[in-house]
Specification:
The chain has 603 residues and is an alpha+beta fold. Helices cover 60% and strands 10% of the residues. It has 17 helices and six strands. The longest helix has 67 residues, at 301-367.
């Protein structure tokens, strides 16, 4: 509403409009804005409602009772469909009538004279034909001082200039005239029109002690006729829009056929320049092609100049003629596009109410935040995205760049899949908007790992068998050394082998299982030194040093697409080098643990 108001604030301020007129103006403006406000209202309301459900764990209790989110949304879906119908009714029935009333009021306001309020120290030109300057005025009595008046009612060259020491300006009771009372001044008036050939211009000078004059100034508010809106697309419902489009298409077709016939019979008709007195008569001729260059080159210089001048004049005349004729068709094409845009808009804007509900309701259930904080921010961001896409499509349709229906429905085509996706994810309790999920995925892609944080257990039922774990660590050392010697992890891998060899690395998986088993057993120890050493073990990535996907065909496609394949190749190489360091670190930690265990056993 504020955006709409600022567009027309210059036409409202300073006009002295009655409260009833302004109230009527705002009322009709609100009626036209209801279809635009409804989608945002539904989005915000659904976000707040389901956000409150999630924040108070009511949605969790409903789902625990075996009731799905779609079943919870079912009554609200019916209500939203009712709101869609209401939006369509407003656009198709109420809005056209409100638009007629609104623009009738707006144009009437523009034609109303401004409220008389002469400022100090500047020229005031709101009175038609006059320019007033007042140096000082008494706001209590209304008296004006040091007055200068330029009267241009007889033309700029015949200006009447009045200078007065003081005066007063008041309006008649019918508000059609101004009474101007001037005191102690002079008036200068030209008696003949000035022209460039005249050196002396006679004028009349009049001195007065008191002078009274009347100025036309109609400040009444008069409504103009509403019929000027009959041909505007804003004032029509869908039936009238379709009828108008059919009529304009028929008109454009008729004009086009007329212009085509005229072009064939006049503009592009072949004219022969042979006269009946020619001695050479051509009775039959079959011309397949005419070499105009050879004909032109055989002419004399004067004939060439005449031919070029004649061709240039003819082409310019034809061009100007078609440019003039195109004005009618271009304007009609623009009107057709605006009518078709309005027709599609009435349906698309109504459907957007349902789409925003399917975005807001599941989104509220996912973020689990109610109130006027987060839901307001999210709803405004989503609506801004919708508004930008919709405005861009409307601009493309208005310019004729895109097909009308594609441009007007593009926002629906983009946001509808988003609503379906969010509804599906929310119904399945997906963590689609859980930030930790994306942070963990990003850490996994980059290669950032967590570190181990083993703490001493409060209750330990059985101490670990240190001698057995010593043997297990010895076995783990052998497995790591054998893997390092067989796989040459520090060297660059074969590019083709990476994308064609899709088997799992069973050896490294066995190493990881052995490592985790040792950690699990020794974590039951009471020895803090052993626990501190266990935290030095790395967390192995058992798949990152191999091809990235489980599907062999997808791996091959990735390898063929060279830029993507190279990115994955260097990533795999980096993970192989890291795996080499991890295995070396495992051996080192094993030896440290073995020393600690042997010391404990000897004691």
């Amino acid at each position: 509403m504020m955006q709409f108001l600022w567009r027309y604030v210059d036409d409202l301020v300073g006009k002295g409009l009655a409260i009833s007129v302004l109230s009527e103006f705002f009322f009709y403006a609100i009626l036209t804005l209801v279809p635009t406000a409804l989608p945002l209202a539904i989005l915000l309301a659904s976000l707040m409602t389901f956000g409150n459900f999630g924040e108070r764990y009511e949605l969790l209790a409903i789902k625990a009772a075996g009731i799905s989110l779609i079943r919870v949304m079912a009554p609200l879906i019916v209500f939203t469909v009712f709101l869609c119908s209401t939006s369509f009714y407003f656009q198709n029935v109420v809005a056209p009538k409100a638009q007629v009333k609104l623009f009738t009021l707006l144009f009437s306001m523009k034609q109303k004279s401004p409220e008389l309020e002469i400022p100090e120290g500047v020229f005031y030109d709101e009175i038609e034909g006059y320019n007033l300057y007042v140096k000082h005025k008494n706001k209590e009595t209304g008296a004006l001082y040091n007055i200068m008046i330029y009267n241009f009612s007889d033309g700029f060259d015949n200006a009447h200039i009045i200078v007065a020491d003081s005066g007063k300006l008041e309006m008649t009771a019918d508000k059609k005239y101004l009474r101007l009372h001037l005191y102690s001044g002079e008036m200068f008036e030209n008696l003949k029109s000035q022209s460039s050939s005249m050196q002396n211009v006679p004028y009349r000078r009049e001195s007065f002690s008191e002078k009274h004059t009347i100025i036309d100034f109609n400040s009444n508010f008069n409504m103009i006729d509403e019929s000027f809106m009959n041909n505007q697309y804003q004032s029509k419902n869908m039936t009238e829009l379709q009828t108008a489009v059919d009529s304009m298409n028929h008109l454009v077709d008729s004009v086009g056929k007329t212009f085509y016939k005229e072009a064939i019979t006049n503009t592009y008709r072949f004219r022969d320049n042979f006269s009946k007195e020619d001695t050479l008569k051509i009775r039959k001729a079959k011309l397949t092609a005419i070499n105009t260059d050879s004909v032109f080159n055989n002419l004399s210089l004067s004939d060439k100049q005449k031919a070029v001048a004649n061709a240039l004049s003819t082409s310019q005349s034809i061009g100007n003629d078609w440019k003039f004729k195109s004005f009618n068709t271009v304007d009609t094409d623009k009107r057709i596009r605006r009518h078709e845009m309005e027709w599609h808009k009435k349906i698309a804007l109504s459907i957007s109410c349902l789409i925003f509900f399917f975005i807001g309701a599941p989104l509220g259930g996912i973020i689990r935040k109610g109130g006027l904080g987060m839901p307001v921010v999210i709803s405004i961001l989503i609506f801004l995205i919708y508004y930008i896409i919709d405005t861009t499509g409307a601009k493309m349709a208005r310019n004729g760049t895109w097909v009308i229906w594609t441009a007007m429905w593009i926002s629906t085509f983009i946001l509808a899949p988003v609503g379906i996706f969010l509804s599906y994810k929310s119904n399945n309790d997906s963590v689609v908007l859980n930030v930790d999920t994306y942070i963990n995925w990003l850490r996994k892609v980059i290669g950032i790992r967590d570190t181990r944080h083993l703490a001493k257990k409060e209750v330990i039922i059985e101490d670990p068998d240190y001698l057995q774990e010593d043997k297990n660590m010895e076995l783990l050392n052998d497995m790591c050394e054998e893997y390092i010697s067989n796989n040459r992890l520090k060297r660059a891998p074969n590019y083709f082998t990476i994308w064609t060899k899709n088997e799992k690395d069973e050896e490294i998986m066995a190493i990881n299982e052995q490592l985790e088993a040792i950690i699990e057993k020794l974590a039951n120890t009471k020895n803090t030194k052993i626990l501190g050493t266990l935290n030095n073990y790395p967390i192995l990535s058992v798949h990152a040093h191999r091809c990235p996907f489980n599907m062999p065909s997808l791996n091959k496609i990735t390898g063929i697409i060279l830029p993507i394949g190279l990115i994955y190749y260097f990533r795999i190489w980096a993970f192989r080098v890291r795996l080499y360091k991890d295995l070396k670190l495992i051996n080192k930690v094993n030896r440290d643990l073995q020393d600690i265990i042997r010391t404990i056993c000897n004691k």
